[in-house]
Write a structure and sequence with these properties.
Metal Binding Protein, Guanine Nucleotide Exchange Factor, Chain A; mainly beta; five-stranded antiparallel sheet; 1 helix; about 5% helix
C-alpha cells in the first residue's frame, strides 16, 4: 500500500465587513506565499497564496464582489464593493491559478511570516 499525501484542508476567508466569504483549497497550503512588486500589487500591499481555478467556492456575497482589470486584461482582481478589501485574483503570470489574499484568511497574520518578493515589474508579457 502506497501512502498518498493528503491535500491541506480548505481555508475560509472573508473581506473586512463580512459581506464576502470564500472557501479556498490552496495549492500547497501557505507555502506559496509571496508579495509581487508590479504597479498594482505594490500599491495594494497584500501578500497572496496560490489556489487552482476550481479551488474557490463563494459561500456568501457573490453580488458584493467587483472586478478590476487594466492593461492586457489578463489578470482579474476581485474585491468587496462595500469595504474595498481584495479577496482574490486570477493571475496574469499564470491564468490557470488564483492568488488569494493571505491577510483575509481566517486565523492568519501575515506579520508573523517571512514573505518573499517576486518580480512583477519585469513581466514577460511586457517585453518588447
Amino acid at each position: 500500500m502506497t501512502d498518498t499525501p493528503l491535500s491541506p484542508p480548505p481555508v475560509r476567508l472573508s473581506c473586512h465587513c463580512g459581506a464576502v466569504v470564500l472557501q479556498v483549497a490552496l495549492t500547497d497550503g501557505l507555502n506559496t506565499v509571496r508579495h509581487c512588486d508590479c504597479s498594482f500589487c505594490r500599491r495594494r500591499g497584500a501578500a497572496a497564496v496560490s489556489a487552482p481555478l476550481d479551488g474557490i467556492e463563494i459561500l456568501q456575497g457573490h453580488e458584493a464582489l467587483r472586478l478590476y482589470q487594466w492593461g492586457t486584461k489578463t489578470a482579474k482582481h476581485y474585491f468587496c464593493r462595500i469595504c474595498g478589501i481584495y479577496t482574490h485574483h486570477q493571475r496574469r503570470s499564470n491564468p490557470n491559478q488564483y492568488g488569494v489574499n493571505l491577510g483575509a484568511i481566517d486565523g492568519v497574520n501575515p506579520a508573523e511570516m517571512s514573505i518573499p518578493w517576486v518580480d512583477g515589474v519585469n513581466h514577460p508579457s511586457d517585453a518588447k
